Amino acid sequence: MARLFHILQRLGESIERRFPPQVAYAHCDIPCGIYNSFPAVQAARTVQKMVTQLLELKEPTAEDPRAMLEYLNAVTRRVQIKEEHAQLCKKELLILWTDYFKPEHLKMFPDLHERVWNATKLCSKNKQSVDPKAANDLLEAAHEIGHMWEKAEAAKAAAAR
Amino acid sequence: MEPALEWGQRLLVSRVAYRIRGPKSGELVIVRHPSRPQLLLVKRVVGVPGDDVRLESGVLKVNDTTVALASSALFEAHWHLDEGAYFVKGDRSDGSADSRTFGPVNRSMLIGKVWLSYWPPHRWGLPRRSFVLR
Fold first, then answer.
1. Among partner residues A8, A32, A43, which is closest to B75 by beta-carbon distance?
2. What region does B92 belong to: left with phi over 0, alpha with psi -120 to 50, or beta?
3. How large is the average pLDDT for residues A16-31?
4. Taking CB atoms and an 8 Å limit, are B1 and A88 in contact across chains?
């Protein structure tokens, strides 16, 4: 059985030398080099949505402990999601900054460092506050970095052609 | 793509299958990465045209049915898959770049259907159609 396996393996290897198979990847980790701005933008969008919903919540006016409990629960859930997604946005932006963007991208985007720095600061600001302007600014900043990523990808694809 | 596939596994892919009919949910496919077309990925179709796909707090739902448990993708999103749009996903939710990160893919990006696994010998056979939680 082991001998048959060995023969088949040798046969397969010789066939693959003549007709090498195409490689398809299953995983995404740093080594495979797949990056995307979508998670950062989506997280920023979620932060904005949570801020909008928090501002729309109405505090119960009557002496109703049950309604107050429901209100506090609704606030807590949205604050928690806002916190998580602001952190996720920061993480995704930092992955793009530290792992995707290379020194040559600074020629295309001289203000790359400042934009990422400002965007990640906005992530923190959105954790600290319920501020529609900060949420809109974060989404805009994530979009801008996303556009930079798209341009860098387009340049890479053009160079490959 | 574990447990369906392991690293180094050899697959025969049918490039004509999807000229005859559309991809079906649960099938293993070879798909081009949308922003890096030279990069081929092997993924599983979990959403087909007409489906509603939602990402809510790390849970992926197709037509309100949870098909994947929590992943690193904590963001929220909603897609209604139009004609020609497919949602693909790796079987391992924790280490996969798929439609949860790059969005639905167009049918033209689906290169073919994984038809047969021929190496290593203990993996010989037709791939199981679905490992997704339904």
1. A43
2. beta
3. 68
4. no
* Chain A residues inside the 8 Å CB shell of B14: none
Instruction: Kindly state the tokens that stand for A25.
Output: 């990847």
Q: Tokens representing A125?
A: 């600001």
Whether the link from the prior residue into B104 is cis, omega within 30° of 0, is no
3-state secondary structure of A34: coil
* Cis geometry, peptide bond prior to residue B120 (ω within 30 degrees of 0): yes
* Separation in Å, CA A141 to CA A146, A148, B113: 8, 11, 39
How many helices (H) and strands (E) are present in chain B, helices listed first?
Answer: 2, 10
Q: Is B115 exposed, middle or buried (CB count within 10 Å of its CB: 0-12, 13-18, 19+)?
A: middle
**Nearest chain A Cα to B43, which residue?**
A26
Q: How many CA atoms does the CB half-sphere of A84 hold within 13 Å?
A: 16
The answer to pTM > 0.90 is no
Give the mean model confidence (pLDDT) for residues B19-46. Answer: 87
